[in-house]
Design goal:
5-stranded antiparallel β-sheet, 41% strand
């Protein structure tokens, strides 16, 4: 995770995705939903840790989910400088 980018804990807006990968549904497409939740796991002695949970659901099924813990990595800092929330965070 780029140290230049801010991270906000919470639930991101659900994203509907077509299996074709296209913005609009194509003939034969099936749609699935992606829900992402970010939890701040930081402590005073261990700052900058987050839990990320992603759940993918589709019609007629509760779906699957995966979770992982992420932290800041200085190797991802932009060589152009570190402007918090800058274009490197898009």
């Amino acid at each position: 995770m780029n140290p230049c980018c801010s991270v906000t804990a919470g639930t991101l807006p659900a994203v509907a995705v077509n299996t074709s990968g296209q913005t609009t549904a194509q003939s034969g497409d099936m749609q699935f939903n992606v829900n992402t939740t970010i939890t701040d796991l930081s402590t005073a002695t261990n700052p900058n840790f987050w839990g990320i949970t992603v759940r993918v659901t589709w019609p007629g099924h509760t779906g699957i989910s995966e979770s992982l813990v992420v932290s800041r990595q200085d190797g991802f800092t932009s060589t152009l400088g570190c402007t918090l929330g800058g274009t490197a965070c898009q």
